Amino acid sequence: MQNTDSVDMTIEIQRSLAIRALRRSNVRRKITEYLNEISPNCSYTSEIAYHTGATTSNVIGALRGIHLRYREEESLLQLNLVEEKKGKTNIRLYMITPFGKEILHTFHDRR
Fold first, then answer.
1. 0.90 surpassed by pTM
2. What is the rounded CA–CA span in Å between residue 53 and residue 75?
3. In which element (H, E) is residue 106 found?
4. Which of 11, 28, 105, 109 is deepest in the core (most CB within 10 A)?
C-alpha cells in the first residue's frame, strides 16, 4: 500500500515540476504547444525554431538543456514532455509524449 502512495506522490511531483517549467519559460511552452499541434508527427530543431519564433540554440536548450540558461533537469526531454527520435542521418526529431499532452491540457485549464 505504501508503495502505491509513493508512486502517486512521484507522479504528482513530476506533474508539478513540468507545469512549473512551462510557466517559467515561454520557449518551452511554445515548443510543447507546437509539437502538440503537429502530433503525431515529429519535427527537428530548426523547424521548431521557425514555427515558434525562437532561436535554434534556445530550442535546443529548452529540449535538452544548456548549462547556464536552461537547466538539464528542467529540459522537455528530462521532464518526459517530449521524446527524441533518431533519424537515419544523425537528425534528431522531437515529438510530444502522452504525458506532455496531459500536462499541456492541465496547464491551459489552470490559466
1. no
2. 18
3. helix 98-110
4. 28
Cα–Cα–Cα angle for 10, 12, 17, rounded to 5 degrees: 95
Secondary structure (3-state) at 54? coil
Widest CA span in the chain? 48
The residue among 91, 27, 80 whose CA lies nearest residue 57 is 27
| Cα–Cα nearest to 63, from 36, 40, 49, 82 | 82
Measure the CA–CA gap between 47 and 28, rounded to whole angstroms. 15
**Hey, what's the cell of 75?**
529540459
pLDDT digits (tens, 9 = 90+) for 65-94: 887 778 888 899 999 999 999 877 888 999
